[in-house]
Design the sequence.
């Protein structure tokens, strides 16, 4: 029913993604760096070309910051720690933030948090949000 | 293939969201308020106008309560603790609930739970649900 | 741009949902019943009529079981523990399973697991899957 | 409004899925094998025919590996541990990876991580990503 030939290598994903539950804890518990408290987002580029990302960080009581520019090579995944976003400006610790991620080709974005402020290694994971009206750049 | 110009600044998100797995634990473990057991939802407004939210809380054995009215400024994120929803009525502790969130402009809603009833800091996170037939207000 | 009047009270959700990562641990740690290891799914019915659910459980090496019949009243949420599914047959412990949930009106389904086999109260949460081709009953 | 007859037994799901936040920890804590640190993905095949999966693993700094071929019988679920993917090649430990999963019939894919590097049994769960333009094989 569905022709299978041309889509085999079509990149999977969307061009606009967002998360709203960001918060980088400033305290950690356990050996560095594996157990540092952190928010991170993982970006998968299944396509044949370099993906160029533009990211803005939105806050509760401050103006948005960015644009952060990141790239993911063709057929590669990359994990970005939010506290490694330092140019043009470091992301504030212990403050809620949201991320708006735009890419020039389809990617898949997943968000994880490792919260090690207490002895237990708590983790959370969610696919980022992308709606069907999403267009990019 | 996809024209990129007009969508660059189009707000990302949906106007109707729901979560069904709500439950605010009444007990906590750890220093207040960072480790208080809590359900919270984070709302990202990437658009250029104030987002007006209307929220109803649905229970297992009680009538729905609300409407709670909340706002998120343009290009801001806000985190709401469910136990801070007190007007017109506080949300019941230790009882399952669902949330129906309606906004007058597109937003992104993520739901998290920090359960600190035991010593370990357990966390859960999910994007709220929004379907494509979603309309608002 | 979008007419807002008729959709205000339209129920939010889908009629077919699935989860694939089910597994009910047989061991627990902590006071009963709040800390019993459990899989549970939460169903939100935002609509004006009773929702009738038909649920089948699929296994790795056994035939599917069911149909379990459950109801959710209008404008109510209900939480079902998978180990409370006992008629026509109890769900096997410590065996992977998937759930196929069909409803005669739109609902929202979220899945959570509390794993208390070790001292820490681990939790996981995800929206169940529902695709746009989903039809029901 | 929606005809209900033909869809009752239509398989639920999509043919292309991806996760981007993969990472198999090499260390564990607790009795084997239940508490081994692991990434796993659960695939539900609600349809009447065998599902043939083709899986590729994408890395940060290495070429993609695969194709891994897996099957799920009709009306069955299967759980795959990522560190059991050993033919044609084992998946690297402690390195971020993404998964691209293609199936010849609709399936539902959920991703979970059990991280037992510290004493607490941390868990994370997410539905894998599948977009509406997804075609397969």
Sequence:
């Amino acid at each position: 029913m569905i022709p299978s030939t041309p889509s085999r290598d079509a990149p999977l994903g969307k061009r606009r993604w967002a998360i709203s539950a960001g918060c980088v804890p400033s305290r950690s518990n356990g050996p560095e760096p594996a157990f540092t408290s952190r928010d991170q987002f993982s970006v998968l580029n299944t396509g044949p070309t370099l993906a160029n990302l533009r990211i803005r960080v939105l806050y509760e009581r401050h103006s948005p910051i960015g644009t952060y520019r990141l790239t993911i090579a063709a057929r590669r995944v990359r994990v970005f720690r939010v506290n490694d976003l330092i140019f043009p400006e470091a992301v504030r610790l212990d403050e809620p933030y949201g991320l708006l991620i735009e890419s020039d080709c389809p990617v898949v974005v997943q968000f994880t948090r490792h919260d090690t402020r207490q002895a237990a290694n708590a983790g959370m994971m969610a696919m980022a949000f992308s709606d069907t009206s999403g267009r990019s750049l």
Remarks:
- The CA atoms of residues 8 and 47 of chain B lie 11 Å apart.
